[in-house]
Amino acid sequence: MGAWTEHVVPRMADRALRSHEIGELRRQACAPLRGDLVEIGFGSGLNVRWYPPSVSTVAAVEPSDVGWGLSAARRERTDVPVRRRGLDGQRLDEREASYDAALVTFSLCTIPDPVLALTELRRVLRTGGILCVLEHGLSPDPPVARWQHRLDPVQRRAAGGCHLSRDVTALVEGAGFAVDHLETFYLDGPALARPWGYTYLLHAHVPSDG
């Protein structure tokens, strides 16, 4: 990682993604989680307060040492054991069918190969295991989508590889998950912010034939 991506981007993300509005969305996204959980893109631990009581353990996959350090106080405030388990969501060092649930929030946008990461999550989840996703991504509105594609090169350089134009639902389904619940909407804000604000809140599971 470069100095900007390693030291600045995690702090920017921690500040930008901890609003009351996003906190409520995190609560909704995390609601179905249960049992042994793997979270890729753990970041500064902004989801920790929203884990429901049904979560037993958390395996946190986080590439940034700065992000992991920023999460320390949040990890100390929870009774749920949180262990750092790897740096790369595309290559999980975990056994097949060893987790009950998986969580990804505002991370699929930066992973170089999001389908590979989602396929890895499907591999380590048990049949019927839950995937919970909260992400920004491709808008269905053509004018907004055009701006997302135009802005993508700048966004990737400024925000640690973040993409604006990924179709989150298509990625999840392409990795073999069955989508149970999907909400899409723009975050509150001015129309100029729409390329960054189209949001997917999604719950899915590993089907029996997956």
From TrEMBL:
Keywords: Methyltransferase, Transferase. Residues 38-132 form the Methyltransferase type domain. GO terms for biological process: methylation. InterPro entries: Methyltransf_11 (IPR013216), SAM-dependent_MTases_sf (IPR029063), Thiol_S-MT (IPR052356). Its EC number is 2.1.1.-. One of its GO terms (molecular function) is methyltransferase activity. Pfam families: Methyltransf_11 (PF08241). This is Class I SAM-dependent methyltransferase.
